[in-house]
Amino acid sequence: MKADIRVALIGNPNTGKSTLFNVLTGLNQKIGNFPGVTVDKKVGYTTLPDGRQAEIIDLPGTYSIYPKSQDESIVFSVLADKHNPHRPDLVVVILDASNLKRNLLLYSQVADLKIPVVVALNMMDLAKKADIDIDVNLFAKKLGVPVVPISARKNEGIPQLKSAISFANKFALQEDSIDVASIAPGLVESISRELDIDNPYLALQLAHQHETLTFLTPEQSERVEQLEKEFSFNSQKAQGAETIARYAFINDLLYDTVKKPITPQGETHSNKIDKILTHKVFGFIIFFGILMFMFQAIFSWSSYPMELIADAFVWVQNWLHHVLPAGPLTSLLVDGVIAGLSGVMVFIPQIAILFAFISILEDTGYMSRVTFMMDKLMRKVGLNGKSVVPLIGGFACAVPSIMSTRTIENWKDRMITIMVTPLVTCSARLPIYTLLIALVVPNRNVWWLFNLQGLALTGMYIFSLISAVVVAWVFKFILKGKERGYFIMELPVYRMPRWSNVIYSMFERSKAFVLQAGKVIIAISVILWVLASYGPGDRFAKIDAQYSQPKYTKTMSTDSLSRTVSSAKLENSYAGVLGHVIEPVIRPLGFDWKIGIALITSFAAREVFVGTMATIYSVNGNAEKMESVYEKMHQAKNPDTGQPVFTLAVAFSLMMFYAFAMQCASTVAVFFRETKNWRWPAIQFAYMTVLAYVASFIAFHVLK
Amino acid sequence: MFQFIYKNMRLSQLEVGETGIVKEFTDLEMSVKLMEMGCLPGEEIRIERVAPLGDPIAINVSGYQLSLRKREAHTIVLQ
Question: Using one digit for the tens of pLDDT, what is the confidence trace for A190-236?
């Protein structure tokens, strides 16, 4: 879409920036990536009162232009780089009217970059409730920019904001907030002169950030470094001095524009809630109660839509088989691409529900209380309070959870969190566990109400959390942290969730997941299809020749014959040959070559296991009734001993393998995308495979 | 309520409900981060609550609630 004016939204976290973005753009928005970095770029469009189209960019929320995380660093580079394709013509700074002082720090930094600014004074309703009286006209006059009071939640002041955007001047008119040159005397002038920069604050920021900025040439960066030495510039001291100067400006600004009640109004609403939700005992009980409810909801609410999706895919596959001519191309499309796609799509309901819950917990302000409560515990094992969110998310899917670790500023904490997140029992493991548990654990109750199978499943979930914590603790000693960890975090006031935001976030993140994981899964399922459909030499031709003899075609029904043929072909396909090759390696774990095939195919995605099992164990099929995978596996016998294949020992050994092994191409891909380095995903893959092997080995030999 | 005046008292030594005024910081790196969040010399800070496991703590500063670890609170010297 062609836009006439480009507008960037900038503000602190929890100021209602996303709400304003949604109100301005509606469904007319899309998420992309900023070039070169993995920060989500949210862009939308709105029509201004004069008929012009405005492109709105939602920049990540930040407290300051000095970045503390990768997400935040994008803010300065978008504003400062004249050649950045996203550089805005106008910046709308959103300020929380009930918390102006801290919010104005970011404003004053952005304003000093001399980009045209409009101030949106959000949460005017909350400010009024708290008896905060703001003289908006005087405030605007002192700043020298248009100030529009709005309430994004209640949809108030939006037309006024839009017309302020359309009438905004092309040139920056704001007053200077501080004397920038005095913070680094000489240096600011030198950088301005040598790099031909007309803005002193930009020059100062280059001195601070030149090492990480990509738009400076190496020579320019080198020159800035030399100048810093020349003027003995200390980045932290300069930033401290600047912050103090800015707050002096802010105090002066607020002195006669904002009147607050002198006496505090007693205990706030939010404080009362906190007394219960972060209580020593109730706090944890409520937290685990919410978690239990979440998992119940994820599994029970999603079962019906998941069945619908699965059925729809089966229907489409059958239909395509019916209308398309039989042949390798049809098979590739139907059994390769569409089968792979259905593997991803089936998880959409679970992921959507999980993200709905996470966005409600974040929106209400509860998530930051959870990190507050869990920080000490998490820190003991080398994690961070903020690791709780990805770990909880890991119960649904590690892929979006790894993306959500970006909020963890500390590199080491973040790496450890990503390292252990895939250990948490994700939803792809659930079908495998339920199948295997159903095979070997009797379905009866103990102590009246506890179902043995349910207990086994719960055990696997708890086991996964314990292993994640233990592994994190080990990594704490292995990884070397570059920076000190800290935990300085705002606790926003409790609010009702904004349902439109919840729905947007559900929709957007599910879409991102499908696109992200979908590509990988389709690619790998095509490869698997090739491996499973073709065999070396003339083996397939021989099978066809053998089973077309009358002794088979006369005695067996068409159905069971075709299944016998396909299982014989599978054994002789490249995948089957691979299964035989790795059999000596997996024999100590109690697995035969057939399970070996499932293990190999599962390295693309765990959920492939059930489908592979269904194909492999179709040998003893009865033509009259289509058997479920469960029945096929239940009847599977070891050809040498005649004993069932899936004993308690084999089933638990398999579950241990799936609990630990890094069998998810999407996770590997997303970890690579986050670190831009193959070393980390490789380490993760290696340690998880070793753990899987050892755990399976122990499980098999203990239970045998 | 009695307010005892200690010499160079740290924020980490205050009890829940007590207030203090920031004088200076003992750690430059931390001070930059704290000042950005509104913890500046001259600002009044009240301890709001302590996390159930004893760390971190939540404070009220320049009109909002901020949580920080005790170790970080220890770098804030009060008047």
Answer: 888 888 888 899 999 988 998 888 788 888 888 889 998 888 888 89
Question: Distance between CA atoms of A684 and A572, rounded to whole angstroms?
Answer: 32
B67 interfacial to chain A (CB closer than 8 Å): yes
CATH 3.40.640.10 fits B11-78, yes or no: no
Q: Could you tell me which of A160, A115, A152, A153 has the C-alpha nearest to residue A136?
A: A160
Regarding an ipTM greater than 0.85, the answer is yes
CB pair distance less than 8 Å for B67 and A284:
no
What 8-state DSSP symbol labels residue A220? H
Q: How far apart are CA A122 and CA A103, in angstroms?
A: 11
Which residues have C-beta within 8 Å of that of residue A614, sequence separation ≥ 6? A629, A632
**Domain residue limits, chain A:** 5-167, 180-259, 282-499, 504-703
A482 touches chain B (CB under 8 A): no
A114: nearest Cα among A167, A62, A174, A195: A174
Contact A64, A106 (CB under 8 A): yes
* Residue-range domain boundaries for chain B: 11-78
For A623-671, the DSSP string reads SSSPPPHHHHHHH-B-TTT--BS--HHHHHHHHHHHHHS--BHHHHHHH
Query: For residues A438 and A441, what is the distance between their CA atoms, to the nearest angstrom?
Result: 6
DSSP annotation string for A367-435: HHHHHHHHHHHHHHTT--GGGHHHHHHTTT-HHHHHHGGGG---HHHHHHHHHHGGGS--TTTHHHHHH
Residues listed for chain A: 704
Going by DSSP bridges, is the β-strand pair B64-68/B57-61 parallel, antiparallel, or unpaired?
A: antiparallel
For residue A537, what are its two tokens? 């030499």
Residue A246 has pLDDT above 90, yes or no: yes
Bridge partners for A149 per DSSP? A121
Q: Which residues of chain B have a CB within 8 Å of the CB of A376?
A: 51, 53-56
Please state the pTM of the whole predicted model: 0.81
A vs B, Cβ pairs < 8 A, gives 109
d(CA A104, CA A120): 12
Separation of alpha carbons A101 and B64, rounded Å:
10
HEC per residue, A681-703: HHHHHHHHHHHHHHHHHHHHHHH
Regarding predicted confidence, which is higher, A366 or A625? A366
pLDDT digits (tens, 9 = 90+) for A306-350: 888 888 888 888 888 888 888 888 878 877 777 777 767 777 887
Which residues 12-41 on chain B approach chain A with CB closer than 8 angstroms? 28-38, 40-41
Mutate to test the interface with A, among B23, B30, B33, B50 (most CBs of A within 10 A): B33
Could you tell me which of B23, B28, B34, B19 has the C-alpha nearest to residue B67? Answer: B34
CATH number for region A5-167: 3.40.50.300
In the block, tokens 């009071």 appear at: A149
CA distance A412 to chain B (A): 18
